[in-house]
Amino acid sequence: MYLEEYTIGMEWKTEPVTISREELLDFTMKYDPHPIHFDDEYAKNTRFKEIIAPGVLTYMAVWGPFMKLNPFGDELVAGKATKMEWLRPVYAGDSLTGRFWVSKTTETSASKGIVEIQIEIHNQEGQLVLTGYTEGVMNRKQ
């Protein structure tokens, strides 16, 4: 999609994705090997009482299904920025859904611009677990 094809409020929703214990542990050991993410005994003595998913896994678990909806089409030049804020823990077995919507578009030159997309991820209980945004550099119609 060209920058000019985005409208404020344009929205996408993803189907639920369940975080399995195996996926959580595999991701953790590769990318975020803190004991809160893999050590059951350690986690029992924390406020969470059991291991929790790394925040980036929470984001990526829903980002993949979002990208399969092809929100950027063939006109994405590159990603520019992503910001995430973790609000609640995500546990093995939790099911996550994402809501994404266009909050801003900015023309940066005659040939390109930036689309800002807000992100909310909820668990199976409807609780908000993550908010954030991502920016994509998009081609403009010429």
Oligomer: single chain
Helix amount: 10-25%
Unreliable residue stretches: none
Question: Strand tally, please?
Answer: 6
Spatial separation of the terminal alpha carbons = 13 Å
Outline? elongated
Contiguous helical run count: 3
> Strand portion, in percent?
35-45%
Structural features, described:
This protein is of the alpha+beta class and 142 residues long. It has three helices and six strands. It has helices at residues 21-31, 40-44, 55-68, and strands at 11-13, 17-18, 76-86, 95-107, 112-122, 128-139. Strands 1, 2, 3, 4, 5 and 6 form a six-stranded antiparallel sheet that branches. The longest helix is centred in the middle third of the chain and has 14 residues, at 55-68. The protein is elongated and about 60 Å long. It starts with 10 loop residues before the first strand and ends with a strand. The model has no long low-confidence stretch (mean pLDDT 97).
Name a few traits of the molecule:
142 residues; six-stranded antiparallel β-sheet; elongated; 3 helices; single chain; alpha+beta
List the helices and strands and how they pair.
Blueprint: E1 11-13, E2 17-18, H1 21-31, H2 40-44, H3 55-68, E3 76-86, E4 95-107, E5 112-122, E6 128-139
Antiparallel strand pairs: 1-4, 2-4, 3-6, 4-5, 5-6
What's the quick description here?
By secondary structure, this protein is an alpha+beta fold. About 20% of the residues lie in helices and about 35% in strands. Strands 1, 2, 3, 4, 5 and 6 form a six-stranded antiparallel β-sheet that branches.
